[in-house]
Amino acid sequence: MSGSFPTGGFGAGIPADGIWQAFEQLRSNFEKRAGSRMGRGDVRAAVLALLAEQPMHGYQIIHEIEERSGGTWKPSAGSVYPTLQLLADEGLISAQESNGRKTYSLTDEGRSSVADTGASAPWAPQGGSDGAGPSALPKAGFELAQAAAQVGRTGTPEQVQQAVAALDETRRRLYAILAQD
User: Fold this and answer.
1) What does the pLDDT look like over 102-136, one tens digit per residue?
2) pTM over cut 0.70
């Protein structure tokens, strides 16, 4: 699809490439803000939280973090394994090798440390489960971009105009939210 849709057809006069560029820009902006990159402290907290439940090997830890975060966070082996080594050096975890795999578990000192901090796991939703967690806005934005692209692809010229007006109003309302003190 290049240029624009045929005159009188679906989304007449609306540049198809422009819609998809805007869609991709919106998606990439949300991915950057809600991406899978967490700080080393978060990896540390996640590893300790998981090992407080049961012993695991490194791959299980990575998989559990990804699963519990709903796929929004998958730490790399390059962040998990150094964290495991650091925790072992600090005496908070120990490793037992079996079948060529190291299984990590909390030491008594590690259990005490986890109990003392009482922090929630980094993948746990913050501020309740009302859908206002950190991933709610990117998800809503992505879904809005999908709907706008669908209208641009299949809508009549009148529907496209209505969608543009609705998006303009939504943009103004979002900025009004930021202007509130």
Assistant:
1) 999 999 998 888 888 766 677 765 544 455 556 67
2) no
Q: Is 96 helix (H, G, I), strand (E, B) or coil?
A: strand
How distant is the alpha carbon of residue 43 from its chain centre? 15
Helix segments in the chain, DSSP class H = 16-33, 40-53, 58-68, 77-89, 108-117, 136-154, 157-179
Q: Note whether 55 and 98 are same-domain residues.
A: yes
How far apart are alpha carbons 6 and 158 in whole angstroms? 15
CB of 55 within 8 A of CB of 103? yes
Q: Is residue 169 part of a domain?
A: yes
Of the ranges 2-16, 30-44, 150-164, the best mean pLDDT one: 150-164
Alpha-carbon span 33 to 25, nearest angstrom: 13
| Residue 88 to residue 96: CA distance in whole angstroms | 11
Residues 110 and 150 in one domain: no
Q: Going by DSSP bridges, is the β-strand pair 56-57/101-106 parallel, antiparallel, or unpaired? A: antiparallel
